[in-house]
Amino acid sequence: MSHADGGGREERFRALHVETYADLLRFVERRVPAAEAEDIVSTVFLTAWRRLDEMPDDARPWLFAVARKTMANQLRGWLRRQALDVRLVSLEARERSDDSVGAAVRIDLERAWRVLRPADREVLALVAFDGLTAEQAATVLGCRRSTFAMRLGRARQRLRAALETTESVSPSSFRTHDYKEQPAWNRA
Fold it and tell me: What share of the chain is helix, strand, coil (3-state, %, to 5)?
């Protein structure tokens, strides 16, 4: 590789980093303690640099898959430290005024979310929070697009059912999934 080729490679990597860093960090932060998220993302970009020539044109799902595998490799240590869960409350929700109806809806959604299996939360999060297409999310989970579409449809049905249940059941009757349960990103 000539010096000029190295410059093009470096520019491609820099552009990839600028384009995907924030999304990748959010993806990881929802699944691991915040103190470890940047280390995971750094490892992902180190892998990306080493394998830049092998990376597909649509690198975003590939990076998410590498992040997922990196997290799976560190699962044992994370289970000892704390439970992993998706954060539902964004800065926007905190900044706007809190009316009682909106608060009740958010509480119901959070309760319904916690009742879902981790695999269902993962499938929904890839589309709703990470903005991936079905094809990209299937790549992240290592399955076919049709399999992902089926999982997504079922997860949506379960979320709807859980939301309907929250209207008629008291908060104390909800069983949230125990943090020792294996995260969805480790099962696909």
Answer: 75, 0, 25
- pTM value? 0.53
178 HSE (CA, 13 A, CB side): 2
The segment with the largest mean pLDDT, out of 3-17, 89-103, 115-129, 171-185, is: 115-129
Two tokens, residue 141: 């989970």
CA–CA dist 155, 54 (Å, integer): 33
Residue 94 domain flag: no
Put residue 131 in one of left, alpha, beta given phi > 0 → left and psi -120 to 50 → alpha.
left
Find the domain containing 133 and state its range. Answer: 100-186
CATH code, 9? 1.10.1740.10
CB atoms within 10 A of CB 106: 14
Pick the closest to residue 183 from 119, 129, 138, 140 (CA basis). Answer: 119
Number of domains forming the structure of the chain: 2
Mean of all residue pLDDT scores within the chain: 77
Same-domain status, 60 and 125: no
Amino acid at 127: V
Q: Which of 21-25, 77-81, 94-98, 148-152 has the lowest mean pLDDT?
A: 77-81
Nearest to 36 by CA among 90, 89, 91, 75: 75
pLDDT digits (tens, 9 = 90+) for 140-168: 889 999 999 999 999 999 988 888 876 65
